[in-house]
Design a protein that fits this description.
8-stranded antiparallel β-sheet, mainly beta, single chain, 161 residues, elongated
Length: 161
């Protein structure tokens, strides 16, 4: 991650990548062996990034108390899957794993209402989130498009001490 702050403006960005390795290995390899006859699962790699911009307007009654923010973010929890289909080695989609990633666009407002500086914050944000989804068997042609528009409004408070 990296960040820069100058004269009320901020820029923050991060890139992440994680590979979840299988908990067991094939017979004869180093590590915990899988149960007899079991095939070790393939590693799963997820990756993503985000870029966030913020600005404190230089107005006398709001400077240091109101920040306007915007963010663009993308996350793919299983980058090895490139298109729908149940090819050998692909992880099957089920109710506990309904999405394959998203692209989000966020606009928000951070308010620091008290004289505590930045130790108390109220945040409001709206995200336009476009998720990709594999259709379950039998869903094709029945309203399953492989795309979900899952917009989100958040309101939260944070206290630091």
């Amino acid at each position: 991650d990296a960040g820069a702050w100058i004269q009320g403006a901020s820029l923050y960005a991060e890139i992440y990548r994680l590979t979840d390795k299988p908990s067991c290995v094939a017979a004869g390899e180093k590590g915990t062996a899988c149960p007899a006859g079991a095939v070790p699962p393939a590693p799963i790699t997820g990756e993503g990034w985000n870029i966030q911009l913020g600005y404190f307007p230089h107005l006398p009654w709001v400077h240091d108390h109101v920040e306007i923010v915007g963010r663009v973010q993308r996350f793919d929890p299983y980058v090895e899957v490139t298109e729908p289909g149940a090819d050998a080695g692909e992880r099957e989609l089920d109710q506990s794993n309904p999405t394959w990633g998203y692209m989000g666009y966020v606009v928000g407002l951070n308010v620091f209402p008290l004289s505590w500086g930045h130790n108390f914050k109220v945040q409001a944000s709206y995200e336009i989130r476009n998720e990709t989804k594999r259709c379950l068997a039998g869903q094709s042609g029945k309203g399953c498009t492989g795309f979900i528009n899952n917009n989100l409004f958040l309101l939260q408070g944070t206290v630091g001490f």
